[in-house]
Amino acid sequence: MIIQIPNLGPIENNAYIISIGNKAILIDAPPEPDKILQRLEENNLKLKYILITHGHTDHIVSTVFLKNQTNAEILANENDIKMFQKPWNLLHLRAKPFTPDILLKDNEEIKLGNKNIISLKVIHTPGHSQGSICFYQEKEKILFSGDTLFASAIGRTDLPGGDQNQLIKSIKEKLFTLPLETKVFPGHGPSTTIKTEKENFYF
Ligand SMILES: [Zn+2]
């Protein structure tokens, strides 16, 4: 089951809960963590992993709070480690520093569950930040794209660590090679598909 929690905080972040049985994975830790805890509680879910798509403050601001509340492990890519350990100030958002429990590499599988399992593949897509990663659920053909790919847009690259050519290369070589019917759930805004974005890509 996938639960989308939209419009969190001043930049309207999306968080996603993926569950199997009573276990759950959270994708990103945006503002308004009470809404995330509420959805976990409503569905009787125990949070096991907090997956971080990248180190920008709107995606990590509640990481430490949610870990303290749930005892979940934090998983992220090492290339954004400086932002996790010394988070940037963003608008009024102030994130507590943390070090991920598990550092994720490109192509690594994250698994949760016993008989039925959630399996997510890590796709390293540098460009929006150097540690940006997407998570791909191969069986269901679902991609969690963070701020790398949005509906009709791509991530900004004007912040430190951003590189537009690298971002376009990551999208073309690592995301547009996924099946066309793949559903895309971004870090902000509505969902889309690889087919739609590939057909309308103007970079
Ligand atoms: Zn970002």
Computed over alpha carbons, the radius of gyration is 16 Å
Order of helices and strands: EEEHEHHEHEEEEEEEHEEH
Average pLDDT reading: 97
| Spatial arrangement of strands, main beta sheet | 1-2-3-4-5-6
- Based on the structure given, which CATH architecture is correct? 4-Layer Sandwich
- Unreliable spans: none
Backbone shape: globular
Q: Which distinct ligands sit in these coordinates?
A: zinc ion
Number of domains: 1
Give a quick account of the main beta sheet: strands, pairing sense, barrel closure: 6 strands, mixed
Number of helices: 6
**Backbone structural class:** alpha/beta
Fill in the CATH topology: Metallo-beta-lactamase, Chain A
CATH class: Alpha Beta
Q: Which features characterize this protein?
A:
globular; alpha/beta; 22% helix; 203 residues; six-stranded mixed beta sheet; 6 helices; 14 strands; Metallo-beta-lactamase, Chain A; 32% strand; single chain; binds zinc ion
Task: Compose a concise summary of this entry.
With 203 residues, this protein is α/β, with parallel strands linked by helices. The protein has helices at 33-42, 57-60, 63-70, 81-85, 164-175, 194-199; strands spanning 2-8, 13-20, 23-27, 46-51, 73-77, 102-104, 109-112, 118-124, 133-137, 142-146, 149-150, 153-154, 183-186, 192-193. The protein starts with a strand and ends with a helix.
Please explain how this structure is put together.
It contains six helices and 14 strands. It is α/β, with parallel strands linked by helices and 203 residues long. It has one domain (2-199): 4-Layer Sandwich (Metallo-beta-lactamase, Chain A), CATH 3.60.15.10. The protein has a six-stranded mixed sheet with strand order 1-2-3-4-5-6, with helices on one face. β9 and β10 form a beta hairpin. It starts with a strand and ends with a helix. Bound molecules: zinc ion. Residues 54, 56, 128, 147 line the site of zinc ion. The site of zinc ion has 4 residues, from loops.
